[in-house]
Each structure stands twice: as C-alpha cells, then as structure tokens.
Amino acid sequence: MSFVVSPKAYARFMGRYAEPLAEVFVAFARVGARDQVLDVGCGPGALTAQLLSVGAEVAAIDPSPPFIDAMRTRFADTDARLGTAEELPYETASFDAALAQLVVHFMTDPVVALRQMARVTRPGGVIAACVWDGPTGALAPFWDAVHVIDPGAQDEALLSGAHRGHLTELFDAAGLRDVDEVPIAAEVVHPTFEEWWEPYTYGVGPAGDYVQRLGDDRRALLETVARDRLGSGPFTVIATAWAVRGTV
C-alpha cells in the first residue's frame, strides 16, 4: 500500500471526497477562529484548507514526502513537517486541538498515535478523528464490485475505526474523556463513470494497489462489473464516515 504518490493523483482519487467531508468534520470537532490546530496525516491539505477557512492556525504533519512538499507550496505560512503520528515532533500542550481525517485506519499503532495527539494538546483541548465506514464509505462501491469477481478479497472494512464503536474503543484506550462518536457524510456527484473509475488506476492506497495487481483481463472485467452496477453517469456517492471527538 502506498501514499507516496503525486498529490494530484491523490486529490483525484480521494480529495473529491475528503474536501466536502472536511467541512462536516471541522464543524463536528468544534474548531474555530484563532484555535491552534494540528492536522495529523494531512495528505495534500484537504483538512488544512478547511481549518484555515474557519480562521484556525494550523500545523500539519504527514509521512509522505510528496504530500509535505505540496503542503509547503500550497500553504507557505503553515508549519508542515514530515513525520508520523506515533512520534509527533511537538512540545507537550502545544495545540488547542489535534485532528486526524481518514488517517486512523492507516496508523501503525492507533492508540499510541492518539496518545501522542493528546500529549501535544493542552488539557481540556479536543482530539477528533474520522474514518470511512466499511460498508458505506467512499470506497464501498469499488469494493462491492471487487467482491462480485473476487469474493475473498480483503477490503478496507477491517481497518481500524471502519465500524461503529471502534473509534470510541481506541479513544477510550488512549485515555481521552467525554468521547462522542457519530456518523457524518459527504455527497459527491460523479458526472461520468470514467471520472469515477480512472483514479482507481493510479495506485493510491489499498484500492489502487488491488487494481495494479490485476492482469489486463481481470482489470477490464472489474471495470465492466463496476460500470454495470453504477451506470454511465451521472451518479451520486453518499460516503459515510464515523467521526469521534474526545477531550484531553
């Protein structure tokens, strides 16, 4: 699985869902003007952009060098660093809030990472995270098509936080207080099937890895099955995520 890809490829693949999701997620996290916020696993900046739009002061971190390069170009005044959630290079109690959008399910050790997020956040500050729901998230239509031709394929439904209550368990294990978990959603209209399908061929994340491992015949079959299920477009994907908020 790789996220060392071009920011443009990632934006085509996931940014189309991450950007509208960020608006709902920031409102859920109750972050606003003048709050000092850490964006953990920032990617090319969907969440950072939304945080800045509500007047927050943002620092950002991600383990992907291309993403951090893109962040430094796009947000020249933002402190964007290369690093992992499990070893955050910030002083204790540096932020009012720490947020992680679509990241917990790819953390090496989610509980350690959440404890790090809590460490760098002031007492009483907010820790919030969201991840796609396994059966109804942004990638569900893709994996539903995969399972027609490959019923045993391991999709992203088993990743951390991908079902109701799992994020809450992780937040509780990390020692956070007043934990609240709710479903949030982003609604995205795809004008054509090709616009929806093409980004899956870019090799981004588990779905992209799966497509790239297929031979030409199997890839063509998967594309045909997905088209039969979704139609030629336009069609709407309502992508549901679980969001959780806790207090340090």
UniProtKB/TrEMBL annotation:
Pfam families, per database record: Methyltransf_11
Give an example GO biological process: methylation
Q: Please tell me whether the keyword Signal is annotated for this protein.
A: no
What UniProt keywords are attached to this protein's entry? Methyltransferase, Transferase
Name the SUPFAM superfamilies for this protein: S-adenosyl-L-methionine-dependent methyltransferases
- What positions does the domain Methyltransferase type occupy? 38-128
Q: Name one GO molecular function term.
A: S-adenosylmethionine-dependent methyltransferase activity
The Swiss-Prot or TrEMBL record describes its family as follows: Belongs to the methyltransferase superfamily.
Q: What is this protein called?
A: SAM-dependent methyltransferase
From which organism does this entry originate?
A: Mycolicibacterium psychrotolerans
